[in-house]
Amino acid sequence: xxxxxxxxxxxxxxxxxxxxxxxxxxxxxxxxxxxxxxxxxxxxxxxxxxxxxxxxxxxxxxxxxxxxxxxxxxxxxxxxxxxxxxxxxxxxxxxxxxxxxxxxxxxxxxxxxxxxxxxxxxxxxxxxxxxxxxxxxxxxxxxxxxxxxxxxxxxxxxxxxxxxxxxxxxxxxxxxxxxxxxxxxxxxxxxxxxxxxxxxxxxxxxxxxxxxxxxxxxxxxxxxxxxxxxxxxxxxxxxxxxxxxxxxxxxxxxxxxxxxxxxxxxxxxxxxxxxxxxxxxxxxxxxxxxxxxxxxxxxxxxxxxxxxxxxxxxxxxxxxxxxxxxxxxxxxxxxxxxxxxxxxxxxxxxxxxxxxxxxxxxxxxxxxxxxxxxxxxxxxxxxxxxxxxxxxxxxxxxxxxxxxxxxxxxxxxxxxxxxxxxxxxxxxxxxxxxxxxxxxxxxxxxxxxxxxxxxxxxxxxxxxxxxxxxxxxxxxxxxxxxxxxxxxxxxxxxxxxxxxxxxxxxxxxxxxxxxxxxxxxxxxxxxxxxxxxxxxxxxxxxxxxxxxxxxxxxxxxxxxxxxxxxxxxxx
Length: 571
Ligand SMILES: Cc1cc2nc3c(=O)[nH]c(=O)nc-3n(C[C@H](O)[C@H](O)[C@H](O)COP(=O)(O)OP(=O)(O)OC[C@H]3O[C@@H](n4cnc5c(N)ncnc54)[C@H](O)[C@@H]3O)c2cc1C
Ligand SMILES: Cc1cc2nc3c(=O)[nH]c(=O)nc-3n(C[C@H](O)[C@H](O)[C@H](O)COP(=O)(O)O)c2cc1C
What we know:
single chain; about 575 residues; 6-stranded antiparallel beta sheet; binds flavin-adenine dinucleotide
């Protein structure tokens, strides 16, 4: 007689498979023994499963949108936590999702970051557009919560997460919690949010069922902080000529003994250290001149430059001064000077956010850099409201870190910005300014591995004579055939401005042949103007190549992006 079907029993399918394997291969004696054993096991008060059977069957979709990996890391942590709590979670990258996929889902957790100026991460653009479109499907029956990642330094703080949250509700889904908004120090708030949402999503326990307590600290490991290590600055050269208006530094950082490793395309995080002169000004502006402990804390723990409207509001609530102080172009020191009120250490640090590290693209391949990583750093300096201002990390590196100085660094892997797996695939690299950094690493890697694929670089800067970063190296690679073609755009060498996007359009027919041959296109550098202008130029080239309109070109480029043949690393 055939054994009874186990699938009808109240046991989850993943529990059934191993059980069936044992039962079907057991002899009659073994089955008899097992029956007795199971009865005894139950009678002896066998340990309960880790989560209620109800929750074990609860399907949960965790959808994430990420550019630099933070949302993905959190989504993975949420998946692990949900699994431990007995959910059956499905992790979905927005890059691979459509809103239609959500119509079947009952529980949804979205973790999405914001980029550009309030934009979604690039690979999530198609999903985001489809969700906001009038044609988006109704989502009645879906219960959801959104965690938004962002940076309060940006005007459109957490815009992507906020809009996804609002849109899901508009489409009829039931919001379980208000959108969770996280600044750069997202680890702890994200964990608390995940805990609360999973709690709200768990199906109610059946009457009489045992309540299982799960230690959430174990169930939801914090998104791991990246391993950082102390590395040594071993080389520092200004690449622009002394007559240039730009200031770009080539740095070499020895990773010897740090245990850190990287790939071309990855970024290196550098812990920030505030300008001692600004620290002293801030200390003085709060009436605490000479307070060495405060100065020490402000040096590398607190962001003493970024000023946000919530900080102004908190300051006004605390002091009754500076209400409505306009933050545009201003920094913390301007607010403190405007208010002119003494503050205690706790009051001051309570207003400030933690000091985040800054990322720099690896400008080398490890095999060519002898246990070091090379960086290309542009010193950021500007003036506003009558004050000279400096970028915290870039100017610290430029002005105050000498060769031999220790740097606290970590590696930020960027698996979405790697060379193609196929060494013979042609690549087109578009990297004006510091955007050229990862492409130096790409060339070193292709040279070291003898990759046969053609490669084409578009580089731009102000002046050929003063700003041609790594000029000799590109020319050597061109001669050696590692680089097949080099197109240069120096904006200030002639009366009219010429940028990389102009060179892209001018090279249109040849570039289209490369694209049609399957070339992968990489864009790195300025997000505000360059990436958009280059995108528009690529669309023109593709439309002409296809002999079709702008919509067809946009669809072609979207497909290339989905296939990993159009990659951007812009900041
Ligand atoms: C993945 C990634 C890779 C990167 N790679 C590189 C790289 O290879 N090389 C590189 O140089 N940078 C790179 N960056 C940028 C880098 O991380 C820093 O953002 C940059 O160096 C500025 O940091 P900072 O601490 O010097 O300036 P901050 O103290 O962060 O100050 C910069 C901020 O000051 C304000 N600001 C700057 N200029 C002006 C102005 N003219 N007027 C008004 N306000 C202004 C803006 O709010 C700006 O965001 C990368 C960024 C990312 C995310
Ligand atoms: C170039 C750039 C642009 C950004 N733009 C915004 C923005 O407009 N609004 C915001 O809240 N955060 C912005 N951020 C901050 C990111 O959302 C934040 O770093 C987030 O943690 C990134 O998560 P991810 O790694 O999952 O993409 C920006 C960050 C960078 C580097």
